[in-house]
Design goal:
Elements (H helix, E strand, L loop, with lengths): L6 H19 L6 H5 L10 H20 L8 H4 L8 H18 L4 H5 L1 E4 L3 E4 H29 L3
Antiparallel strand pairs: 1-2
Helix pairs in contact: 1-5, 1-7, 3-5, 3-7
């Protein structure tokens, strides 16, 4: 950890990573059908889609927008992807988590005040980016926990 990460960066890092950890844990023990099951509601997504999309959002916002690092995100593709197992997503999360933690804990107070060009939001500060990612992760974590409950309830025992 750098000598002077901002207090805000430490708190946001802890909160964002915790939300994303819990999101990925929603995949635990599910088979292919359960991972890809969609609730019977307009615009509802499978657990697989929720995890792919939320990790893509964190990668794009934190690494690309905040740190100018490469991102291979294809937002539209996230909503049509299906998975055979959770293994690939778990491995992807483990690698991404390490990168996110390292970069987030390098943020100083000055970095949080600096303006960045966001692909869809225009010019926003580093702190605004952290808020966007934290809020987005929390929203989709709630959806994923509910979706997991619904998929388990709909699975014959």
């Amino acid at each position: 950890m750098p000598k002077n990460p901002s207090r805000e960066a430490i708190l946001f890092c802890r909160y964002i990573l915790s939300s994303l950890d819990r999101l990925v844990q929603c995949l635990d023990g599910l088979d292919e059908n359960q991972l890809n099951w969609q609730p019977p509601a307009p615009h509802a997504n499978s657990l697989y889609t929720l995890v792919v999309h939320t990790l893509g959002n964190a990668e794009e916002n934190l690494l690309l927008t905040l740190f100018d690092q490469p991102s291979s995100r294809n937002r539209e593709q996230e909503f049509v992807m299906k998975g055979q197992s959770a293994d690939a997503l778990i491995a992807q999360w483990q690698a991404l988590r390490e990168r996110l933690q390292k970069t987030l804990l390098s943020l100083s107070s000055g970095d949080l005040e600096q303006e960045h060009l966001h692909p869809r939001r225009g010019s926003i500060t580093g702190l605004d980016i952290l808020i966007v990612v934290a809020r987005h992760a929390a929203e989709h974590l709630g959806q994923a926990e509910l979706t997991r409950d619904l998929v388990l309830a709909s699975t014959p025992r």
